[in-house]
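ARCHIVE RECORD
Type: protein–small molecule complex
Small molecule: P-hydroxybenzoic acid
Source of inputs: curated submission
Record status: active
Notes field left blank by submitter.
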Amino acid sequence: MSQLAGADALFQPIRLGAIDVNNRVFMAPLTRSRATHDGDVPNAINASYYAQRATAGLIVAEATQISPQGKGYAYTPGIYSDAQIAGWKLVTEAVHAQGGKIVLQLWHVGRVSHPTLQQHGELPVAPSAIAFESKTYNATGFVDCVVPRALRVDELPGIVDDFRNAAKNAISAGFDGVEVHAANGYLLDQFLKKKSNRREDDYGGSIENRVRFPFAVVKAVCETIGSDRVGIRIAPETHFADVDDSDPSAVFGHFVDRLNELKLAYVHVVEGETGGPRDLGGVDYVALRERIETAYVANNGYTRELAIEAIAAGRVDAVAFGVPFLANPDLVERFRTNASLNVADQSTFYGGDEKGYTDYPTLEAVPN
Ligand code: PHB
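STRUCTURE (tokenized, with ligand):
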């Protein structure tokens, strides 16, 4: 039974700001592109999907656009319209009915978009007019991202307001809190990292300047709903969506020092390359963790064993699992009993219906 005794580390309750959770196995935010097409509205199958996974200590619901401008892919949900708030209520009520906790990830994609995904065919916006030289997908399939329009300084307060409004809407929709998405090459990460931020004003150049806008967003969200219900996700080393920085330790060290002023509920860190190698060598995550004065949620490539080891050693407070949770609604129970895992079907990750979404079997359904 030593393996089961080891798993105890995963089953200690923890308080994240104002959010009490009863285990350390979290569900990472996962884009599934199954919102109702008309209006990007969450729906009943989204509610079933999340309710099936409600035994997670905390569900971080998928990246959700804070405004029409924040959208970068077809069929991702929003949190700016009344219909979207009503749709998300179905989700939060279903999760809470199962005893789960759920926060919403607030997302602005910046340049990772296309005029066909924007209102009135507008250009996507970014810190600088530098294209993401790859693709996104719209209703017709994959399309090349375009050269975005560099944001004017006088537009930044409007985006801060969109984040504020989205956070308020998330609370109205019944979420336990929000996670500001500052990772994976989307708008806030585009500001943080040098390759995508070539601005020569107060929001570019020095590390202090590059941190200014993301920090203002997080601060505004904290002022709106209370910092004890706000987390943030960062990905210091990722190159996802072609972001890069020659000194991620310095950038993110400074950023987390500033975030400490806000007393967030947690900081969620993608360690290494999003969905890829964990060990890129550019950031000492133990040192970063020590600098963060709140709960540290780790993500990226963790196994059950690695999670037990990291939590038991006190290096991390919780671990978020993405693909394993997608394919195993009862991942927590499987970890408790060290059961085998369902394999994820990549062909049904994005878009479609219940297939590959709400039909993954639990252990109970398929005893092994
Ligand atoms: C994606 O849609 O592929 C996606 C969304 C958010 C992320 C990463 C990937 O943070």
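CURATOR ANNOTATION: Residues 31, 63, 73, 183-184 surround P-hydroxybenzoic acid (CB under 6 Å).
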